[in-house]
């Protein structure tokens, strides 16, 4: 597990492009037949993936957590952006189709990941945060019928925003949040931009009470996103390619514009779970 320390905004304003990338960008997120994890000191979030292809992958704590098992003191959210696969949690197997998600509660010990087709492996994107209690483990689906251990995303949590005229026609699909899937602090969701739209989260904002991680994907090899970060009057950018993630401290804006439309997964942890708790920044105040 790779470790990343926190960064002061007073220091970040002096970073070179390479230093920004070293501190905040996560590349090669999905590696076949590997579990890859990055532990950030910013709200103790762990970001990463499990990409089973030829073999089943088992999640273990590693020396960095000083825990008997990975979720001894943690909770975890997963969204599959690859082919169909399955996640087995303490003997219960969940079939996780493309764009399905899971919430796995604190205290679950044995977690394994498998793909249905090694030629089209599942890509399980992971966010994990410290937890104080155990909430039910559930499979999260965008549509279908609710049953035991299965939650269907509510229509009010599929929000269409923006317009083509503003280059930001997009749909926000909220997976893990209060009232739908309960968690200690973790929230996760997916935002998809329509063809012709390239801007996300603009006008931008900060939220001092939560940090965030973005995973950008659904882009061809030659496409990119300019991810904007930093204090509102000291903005910086990081060029991001397909299936790369970026850590966003609570003091930083987090917005992007791409060379074409794309999709991104957002994950938040921190002081509260109020999705609308944001400090908006007017476009004319950005420097």
Automatic annotation (TrEMBL):
It is an enzyme of class 5 (isomerase). Zn(2+) binds at residues 205, 207, 212, 254. Its EC number is 5.3.1.17. GO terms for molecular function: 4-deoxy-L-threo-5-hexosulose-uronate ketol-isomerase activity; zinc ion binding. It comes from the Bacteria. Gene3D superfamilies: Jelly Rolls, pectin degrading enzyme 5-keto 4- deoxyuronate isomerase, domain 1. Binds 1 zinc ion per subunit. The keyword Metal-binding applies. Its cofactor is Zn(2+). Keywords: Isomerase, Metal-binding, Zinc. One of its GO terms (biological process) is D-glucuronate catabolic process. It catalyses: 5-dehydro-4-deoxy-D-glucuronate = 3-deoxy-D-glycero-2,5-hexodiulosonate. The keyword Iron does not apply. Catalyzes the isomerization of 5-dehydro-4-deoxy-D-glucuronate to 3-deoxy-D-glycero-2,5-hexodiulosonate. Belongs to the KduI family. This is 4-deoxy-L-threo-5-hexosulose-uronate ketol-isomerase. It comes from Blautia pseudococcoides. The gene is kduI.
């Amino acid at each position: 597990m790779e470790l990343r320390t926190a960064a002061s905004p007073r220091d970040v304003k002096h970073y070179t492009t390479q230093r920004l990338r070293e501190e905040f960008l996560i590349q090669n997120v999905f590696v076949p037949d590997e579990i890859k994890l990055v532990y950030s000191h910013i709200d103790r979030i762990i970001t990463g993936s499990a990409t089973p292809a030829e073999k089943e992958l088992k999640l273990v704590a590693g020396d960095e957590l000083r825990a008997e098992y990975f979720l001894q003191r943690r909770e975890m959210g997963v969204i599959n952006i690859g082919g169909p696969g399955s996640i087995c949690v303490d003997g219960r197997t969940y079939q996780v189709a493309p764009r399905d998600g899971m919430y796995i509660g604190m205290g679950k010990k044995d977690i394994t990941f498998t793909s249905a087709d090694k030629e089209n492996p599942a890509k399980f994107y992971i966010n994990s945060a410290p937890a104080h209690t155990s909430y039910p483990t559930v499979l999260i689906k965008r549509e279908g019928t609710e049953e035991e251990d299965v939650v269907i995303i509510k229509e009010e949590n599929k929000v269409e925003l923006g317009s083509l005229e503003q280059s930001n026609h997009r749909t926000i699909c909220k997976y893990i949040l209060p009232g739908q899937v309960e968690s200690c602090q973790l929230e996760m969701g997916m935002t998809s931009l329509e063809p012709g739209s390239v801007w996300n989260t603009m006008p931008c904002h900060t939220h001092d009470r939560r940090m965030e991680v973005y995973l950008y994907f659904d882009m061809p090899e030659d496409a990119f996103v300019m991810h904007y970060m930093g204090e509102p009057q000291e903005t910086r950018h990081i060029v991001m390619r397909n299936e790369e993630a970026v850590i966003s401290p609570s003091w930083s804006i987090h917005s992007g514009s791409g060379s074409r439309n794309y999709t991104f997964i957002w994950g938040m942890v921190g002081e509260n779970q109020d999705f609308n708790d944001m400090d908006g920044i007017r476009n004319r105040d950005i420097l």
